[in-house]
Amino acid sequence: MSDQTDIPTTEEEWRARLDPERYRILREAATEPPFTGAYVDCHEPGTYRCAGCNAVLFTSETKFDSGSGWPSFTEPAVADAVETRTDTSHGMVRTEVVCRRCGGHLGHVFPDGPGPTGLRYCINSASLELDREAGGQQE
Ligand code: FE
């Protein structure tokens, strides 16, 4: 996939593109169980892209260990990479985070992150694909 990858227009096309877990999370807003995702403890430098459309969403520079069991970031790679929506499912009021390019569900954002943003973008590993920096240094 490239940045210019076409965005599917039907759920059938999305099912063909995504494995079942990614489909449930990106397209049906499911949540992966905590501490199970590929990137929870990942400290490799690189760029996290949308697993649905390849858009650049987050970078390793803003990733931090939140202890929540999900990859956590203080901010998106660029402000308009993601979009937020109020989510009142499961008897809670939360702020859902979706990919602006394809509308895929990424996770939620909470106001309990570290400075300077004070935000914690709590993102499913399955919604992301890490583009490792070629020859990059290990953090
Ligand atoms: Fe996307």
Q: Tell me the Rg in angstroms.
A: 14 Å
Q: What overall form do the CA principal axes indicate?
A: globular
Percentage of β-strand residues? 25-35%
Largest sheet: 6 strands, antiparallel
Low-confidence residue ranges: none
Quantity of strands, as a count = 9
Give the ordered list of helices and strands: HHEEEEEEEEE
State the helical fraction. Answer: 10-25%
Strand order, sheet with most strands: 3-4-8-7-6-5
Q: Count the DSSP helices.
A: 2
Cofactors, ions and other ligands in the entry: fe (iii) ion
Helix/strand class: alpha+beta
**How far apart are the termini?**
27 Å
What's the topology here?
Layout: H1 11-17, H2 20-28, E1 46-50, E2 56-59, E3 63-64, E4 72-73, E5 82-87, E6 94-99, E7 105-110, E8 120-123, E9 128-132
Antiparallel strand pairs: 1-2, 1-9, 3-4, 4-8, 5-6, 6-7, 7-8
The protein binds fe (iii) ion.
Task: Give a quick set of tags describing it.
single chain; alpha+beta; 9 strands
Question: Would you kindly provide a brief summary of this structure?
Answer:
Helix content is 12%, strand content 29%. With 139 residues, it is an alpha+beta fold.
Verbal overview:
The protein is an alpha+beta fold and about 140 residues long. It contains 2 helices and 9 strands; from the N terminus they run H-H-E-E-E-E-E-E-E-E-E. It has helices spanning about 10-15, 20-30; strands spanning about 45-50, 55-60, 65, 70-75, 80-85, 95-100, 105-110, 120-125, 130. The strands form 2 sheets. The chain has a 6-stranded antiparallel β-sheet with strand order 3-4-8-7-6-5. A 3-stranded antiparallel β-sheet has the order 2-1-9, with no helix packed on it. A hairpin with a 7-residue loop joins strand 3 (about 65) and strand 4. The protein binds fe (iii) ion. Fe (iii) ion (FE) binds next to loops.
